[in-house]
Amino acid sequence: MVNDAHTPTFENLHRERRTFKPAVGFAVHANARAYEYKKAGVDRLEYWREAAMRLAWHRPFTEILDWTDAPFARWFYDGTLNACDNAVDRHVREGRGDRVAFHFEGEPGDTQTLTYADMHERVQRAANGLASLGVRMGDRVAIYLPQIPEAVVAMLACARIGAIHSVVFGGFSAESLRQRIDDAEAKLVITADGGNRRGAHLALKPLVDEALAAGDHHPEECASVKNVLVVRRTGQDTAWTEGRDLWWHDVVDPQPADHEPVWVPAEHPLFILYTSGTTGTPKGLFHSTGGYLAGAAHTHRMVFDLKPETDVYWCTADVGWITGHSYIVYGPMTNGATQVLYEGTPDTPHRGRWWEIVEKYGVTIFYTAPTAIRTFMKWGEAIPDGYDLGSLRLLGSVGEPINPEAWMWHRRVIGGDRCPVVDTWWQTETGAIMISPLPGVTATKPGSAMTPMPGISVDVVDDAGVPVGPGEAGYLVITEPWPSMLRGIWADPVRYGRTYWNRFDGMYFAGDGAKKDVDGDLWLLGRIDDVMNVSGHRLTTTEIEHALVSHPWVAEAAVVGAQDEVTGQAVVAFVIVRQDADAVPTDGDEVAAALREHVRHEIGALARPRTILVVSEVPKTRSGKIMRRLLRDVAERRPVGDVTTLADSSVMDAIRDGLAAGTKD
Ligand code: WTA
């Protein structure tokens, strides 16, 4: 897997000299304190025990960690609790019901203000609604919704009855949805007629219909699904399967707003979330209830310095990704945060929409992705300058390595040079932030995620698993179990051990390259496996290759992630068309357009290649392995590197000639 290693060489990064010390005014009120590192260093388990004790437990735990069956961990395992009770009921119970949980802003401009008491009412009705459809503890529920309050309510209602949600991002295709429903054997799918996207109605329900119907790829219907529960969002016409499809408002609204949460053991799975791994099929990672919630809530409080009475927090991620799970739903709500939830894109109806929202709600904490920041840089600072962003006091970044220029721009233009910037490294697998500065404590360097969180043990090792020295690059590993770690891959325990724990004995291997600088601070270098990071979304080369090859015109495909100024990486595909296929257009652009559409249909718009090059051959080693390194050189328009291991070294000349002949982006 790591043979064809691709470690972007950010050569100058560890020589970064700029540092930003915490402002005294911020530090005196900060949630995080420097002694936490020491405390966690002295007794890591006690540190996590205290963090978990902040949750509301139904039966308090007495055990902290069981690691005897490593790499299968159990944390706080003799306790019982409910994640929805922590995120919602507790605030009402403790007199915080009037606090706003969400300022919801729909893309067309419709708004809703939902207090914790409102959320309490909604989750109870929804929980009763799900129960009325026969959904029980341990059942799986697929959620395929736009970024609307019902998405949060649906997740929490599942948690409330002990059902396991599997949220599928609304940008995924019917085929991707079908795979995920099938793998988890979901009993119920919760969707909407559609959502709003760039001023248009994007249909969702027809994709669910397509996913559930028998089709070319899959002769069997998704037999596990009993019902489809449909939220009315756009009001567009929707085909209906009687007996299976039900409106959310018909099922949920008449239910009593009275429901006792199901108290589950701490290790009960809270959710499954599918993510790209190094093979073609996405992995259904699952997380626990107690450890996950402890990790999400604790890191949220520390890294974002949340003051729940006064802050207005906005994480721009979609709830369909782990960032939305941990830092919109479970972490912030457990901490009683007031949040902004926005349905749409940053440029609808104009490029100042996000800043208009910051100004309108007085957002104080703002968490976004480098790809968004780079887009705003491209659009120019006059746009954010047109709004009052004076309410902001802390900025976060997640999803991919943030370039020092983007970090500086974020700090200066959005944060007015007064807000700490926290670059947070973590993964779907880790459940919560693993590496980040602590605001008010850590002096930051632009582009560095700095140090592991207190209680988290991270290292950078070489091929043999030996820690590298200062200034050296290697593989990022986590050396001790942590509460919010994934508990496994759904229905595939063997793959879990093999994927994460076998590369380096007894250490969790993240798949990322990293470098320690002379001060020991960490610089993330991107994935070293076949996982690409496109606008902060994880995709594998293999899944896109599979999608391309499933098209009748394509004989073979090789996909690489090429560096891209805005999206971080972009999908570039090299395809060989079949000689025997009927009616293949001779025009490469026409082939490319059809194949891009095909990938959109198979996986989703997020996987659509930026560039497709029709070639006569792809470079391979003598053992038949595609040499992606060379293709990446071509895609990034660099001189092609060492070709001595190629089976046929003239292949690269042919590809280069083909490129020169004018196939373009
Ligand atoms: C990358 C998203 C550098 C990394 C929370 C990781 C980052 C993958 C950062 C996980 C960061 C995430 N700096 N790289 N601050 N944050 N990554 O599962 O390659 O969607 O392995 O989780 O994103 O992506 P995932």
Structure description:
This protein is of the alpha/beta class and 665 residues long. The protein is built from 20 helices and 30 strands. It is globular, with a radius of gyration of 24 Å. Helix content is 30%, strand content 22%. The strands form eight sheets. Strands 12-11-8-6-7-14-15-23 form an eight-stranded mixed beta sheet, sandwiched between helices. A seven-stranded mixed beta sheet has the order 5-4-17-16-18-19-20, with helices on both faces. Bound molecules: 5'-O-[(S)-ethoxy(hydroxy)phosphoryl]adenosine.
Count of individual helical segments: 20
Bound molecules: 5'-O-[(S)-ethoxy(hydroxy)phosphoryl]adenosine
Q: State the distance separating the first and last CA atoms.
A: 29 Å
Residues in helices, as a percent range: 25-40%
Produce the secondary structure layout.
Elements: H1 24-29, H2 35-42, H3 44-53, E1 65-66, E2 74-75, E3 80-81, H4 83-93, E4 100-105, E5 111-115, H5 116-132, E6 140-144, H6 149-161, E7 164-167, H7 174-184, E8 188-192, E9 194-197, E10 200-203, H8 205-212, E11 227-231, E12 245-247, H9 248-251, E13 264-265, E14 269-275, E15 283-288, H10 290-303, E16 312-315, H11 322-334, E17 338-342, H12 353-361, E18 365-368, H13 370-379, H14 382-385, E19 394-398, H15 404-414, E20 421-424, E21 458-461, E22 473-478, E23 488-489, H16 493-500, E24 508-516, E25 522-527, E26 531-534, E27 537-540, H17 541-549, E28 554-564, E29 568-577, H18 588-602, E30 611-614, H19 628-635, H20 650-660
Parallel strand pairs: 4-17, 6-7, 6-8, 7-14, 8-11, 11-12, 16-17, 16-18, 18-19, 19-20, 29-30
Antiparallel strand pairs: 1-2, 3-13, 4-5, 9-10, 14-15, 15-23, 21-22, 22-24, 24-25, 26-27, 28-29
